[in-house]
Amino acid sequence: PVPSLIALLRARGSVLSSWIAMPEPLVAESAARAGFDCVTLDMQHGLHDPVSIMRGIGAVALAGVPAIVRVPVGDFAMASRALDMGASAIIAPMINSAADAEALARATKYPPIGERSWGPVRAMQIAGATGGNAYLQGANAETLTFAMIETRAAVAALDEILAVPGIDAIFIGPSDLSIALSRGGHVDPMDAENQAVASDLLARAHAAGKYVGMFALTGAQAKLYLGLGYDFVALGSDDMYLQAGAASMLAEARAK
Ligand code: 3PY
Ligand code: MG
């Protein structure tokens, strides 16, 4: 069995996740083997489809770490399918109201919290569950549901979103949030107003007993966020790892 994300959060206090857009299982496995605590497969802006998610989760499991899936906007059916395939957590973008959060929780949690439909064949194997009832008893608590907060509406509705049963965590999208706060003026995750709003979201979600995730574009940003108390920090993306690794090796090779 592969540890769940919530087990890692309990054991380590915080985790660093890789972020993978390329729909090739070997890329996800390689990122996991590079030392990330977990790997997120992105279907919103990344190129993943249901089949590459199924293969990617398997490849990440082979490396012994949990996989998380970011689904496309409003695709709660995919959230359910990703959990069935063995995702340890779901990140749902653009959750802007209690109604959005309720729809997300309905798809990701079994009764009495939601209406997740039964069919966790692969998930049971990855979790090492001894049978259907064992999986059913643990699933609502062992798989995490992240609501992305990245619009003005979401910031305004934060308390109602946090109050929805089954929403275990929020994940701040700092780029979209900065575009929203500046009313389309810029995309700048490190903008002072953006960071101030994010810190307020962090404090309020923690006060409500929820985990908080954040996206970091650089290692230095990730270090800053871990220091500020974010629980789940996603760092860079596969394309960035490739570009940065290649640039650094080329610079070495061409150094005078
Ligand atoms: C954002 O910054 O808007 C994100 O969605 C990060 O993944
Ligand atoms: Mg976003």
UniProtKB/TrEMBL annotation:
List each copy of the HpcH/HpaI aldolase/citrate lyase domain by range: 19-240
Under Pfam families, the record lists:
HpcH_HpaI (PF03328)
Q: Which UniProt keywords apply?
A: Lyase, Metal-binding
* Entry GO MF terms: lyase activity
UniProt superkingdom = Bacteria
Q: Which Gene3D superfamilies match?
A: Phosphoenolpyruvate-binding domains (3.20.20.60)
- Assigned EC number: 4.1.2.52
| Family recorded in the similarity comment | Belongs to the HpcH/HpaI aldolase family.
Protein name as catalogued: 4-hydroxy-2-oxoheptanedioate aldolase
Give the species this sequence originates from: Kaistia dalseonensis
